[in-house]
Specification:
Number of strands: 2
Main location: membrane
GO cellular component, one term: plasma membrane
CATH topology of the largest domain: Growth Hormone, Chain: A
CATH class of the largest domain: Mainly Alpha
InterPro entries: Dipep/tripep_permease (IPR005279), MFS_dom (IPR020846), MFS_trans_sf (IPR036259), MFS_Transporters (IPR050171), POT_fam (IPR000109), PTR2_symporter_CS (IPR018456)
Oligomer: single chain
Keywords: Cell membrane, Membrane, Peptide transport, Protein transport, Transmembrane, Transmembrane helix, Transport
Order of helices and strands: HHHHHHHHHHHEEHHHHH
Transmembrane segments: 62-87, 99-116, 122-140, 161-181, 187-208, 229-254, 260-281, 344-362, 374-396, 402-428, 440-461, 473-493
Length: 507
């Protein structure tokens, strides 16, 4: 997903490197580093809302659901947003290798802080994890691409293997951290995430020789003076962040999470529209490029709406699993977080089928537009909340519902994700004006942030004190997603023409 993937600089001899399942040995280094980082990220993420809403007697924070889900949305939104400066730091200052290393260390420190049984350090831990992830995530993804020359046909399958590592790591995280949460304690679960990241760092350092020459230097380094000014600016931002945190803890500044999330959602949307408009109107684009941007805009709208529903997995659906799902199977109580692993299992199982689907459709000269595929993905995801509408009606009657309701919802969400997520990334790379390709990927990543924050705000309406209102919440999310999906679907017939536009010769 990185917007900062640099061209490969390896020699043709690297094509002979088949040390990891026929791929360069460096892929194993990045595969396992990312696997353990995702273990720590998803393992901890599965705990957040549950920990924040748990009572003080349960050693939680006793936040309201609205507050907890707003914080969750801000955190997950910040993770994606901070990938933009993280990629810039690698490109201009440190190079990918060192940025990934320092990012992993910061992530590990964040999890260690979260593992401290003290409420006062909770937000410091969250900030550290978000900052570290912003440094590591975009750059390790970019380094995968740098393992291959531009002519190497193994690149796509290399990313498929790498993507498998992401899902294996997430399953491990859900299983390990979820078990510790239920059977040992919150802070032991946070500590398990720290151990996972530590394992990733150790293997990264020990196998660093596998990626020698890959991301070891900035691709577009600043001048010495520019570098000095950049570090001063970064230092000023960090100092300002530390000051705000200190003043908040001292009670001088009072931050209301729900209000803050609303303002941040508006700010990210304004930034997205402003930058998109700047490229459209001031980018010296020809008519064909402008029409492609209209087609890409539909994909961006679908993406933001999709993630606003999909990311209910860590908030309202997580709470539903904890409070209203019968988790006892054959005498064993299934940890709440384990339900979220359904998504990763379904991705591992279904990904090959969807890859074959698009290929076979293309062979039959059937090529749906990007926006049509994304609209279908959004609608399928939204139908998952129709399932939850019926499930929550049983819950409103005081009944515990069978696990299959949630698993069916996660299945539909995964099918929607496979229709939309890889297609949207492909759309950005194909429809963006070539001279703005990196910037357009950065703008597109903002749709993840916007969707995550909106998701947290929507989940704030999940009120355990008013169970009878929960069906209405899921129905609203479903109708909104289906409605937007239908609108995009109607525009997609025109968008197919826009996507096919080529540059017209000038007089």
């Amino acid at each position: 997903m990185s917007s900062h993937e640099a061209a490969s600089a390896e020699s043709p001899d690297n094509k002979l490197d088949t040390g990891f399942f026929g791929h360069p040995q460096g892929l194993s280094t990045l595969f396992f580093t990312e696997m353990w980082e995702r273990m720590s990220y998803y393992g901890m993420r599965a705990l957040l809302v549950l920990f924040m809403t748990a009572s003080l007697q349960e050693e939680g924070l006793a936040f309201t659901v609205a507050t907890a889900t707003a914080i969750y949305g801000l955190y997950t939104g910040a993770v994606y947003f901070l990938g933009l400066p993280g990629g810039w730091i690698a490109d201009r200052l440190l190079g990918g290798q060192r940025t990934v290393w320092y990012g992993g260390i910061i992530i590990m420190l964040g999890h260690i802080v979260l593992a401290i049984p003290a409420q006062s350090t909770f937000f410091i831990g969250l900030i550290l994890v978000a900052m570290g992830t912003g440094l590591l995530k975009p750059n390790i993804s970019a380094m995968v691409g740098q393992l291959y020359s531009s002519e190497d046909v193994r690149r796509d399958s290399g990313y498929a293997i790498y993507y498998m590592g992401i899902n294996i790591g997430s399953v491990i995280g859900y299983m390990v951290c979820g078990y510790f949460m239920e059977n040992v304690g919150w802070h032991w679960a946070f500590g398990a995430a720290a151990v996972g990241m530590a394992i990733g760092l150790v293997q990264y350092r020990m196998t660093l020789g596998n990626i020698e020459g890959v991301g070891d230097k900035p691709s577009h380094p600043l001048s010495p003076a520019g570098s000095k000014n950049a570090w001063l600016a970064i230092g000023a931002v960090l100092a300002a962040t530390a000051a705000i945190v200190a003043l908040t803890y001292a009670g001088v500044i009072v931050i209301e999470p729900v209000t803050l999330a609303q303002y941040v959602a508006v700010a990210f949307t304004v930034i997205f529209l402003g930058y998109y408009g700047y490229i459209y109107f001031a980018g010296d684009l020809d008519e064909g490029e402008k029409k492609k941007l209209w087609a890409l805009f539909l994909v961006c709208v679908a993406s933001a709406c999709f993630w606003s529903g999909f990311e209910q997995a860590g908030s309202s659906l997580n709470l539903f699993a904890q409070d209203y799902t019968d988790r006892v199977i054959a005498g064993f109580t299934v940890p709440t977080a384990w339900f979220q692993s359904s998504n990763s299992f379904f991705i591992i199982i279904l990904s090959p089928f969807f890859a074959a689907l698009w290929i076979n459709l293309a062979k039959r000269m059937i090529t749906p537009s990007y926006s049509l595929k994304c609209a279908i993905g959004l609608i399928i995801m939204a139908t998952g909340f129709i399932v939850m509408f019926f499930a929550s009606q049983y819950a409103a009657q005081g009944l515990k519902v069978a696990p299959m309701w949630l698993i069916t919802t996660y299945f539909l969400h995964t099918v929607g994700e496979l229709c939309l997520s890889p297609v949207a990334l492909s759309a950005v790379s194909k429809l963006s004006p070539k001279r703005f390709a990196g910037q357009m990927m950065g703008i597109f990543v903002l749709t993840y942030s916007i969707g995550n924050i909106i998701s947290g705000l929507l989940a704030g309406n999940f009120d355990p004190e008013q169970v009878d209102q929960i069906p209405n919440l899921y129905l609203q999310i479903s109708l909104f997603g289906i409605g937007v999906g239908i609108l995009i679907l109607l525009f997609s017939f025109r968008a197919k023409i826009w996507e096919g536009q080529t540059q017209q010769p000038t007089a």
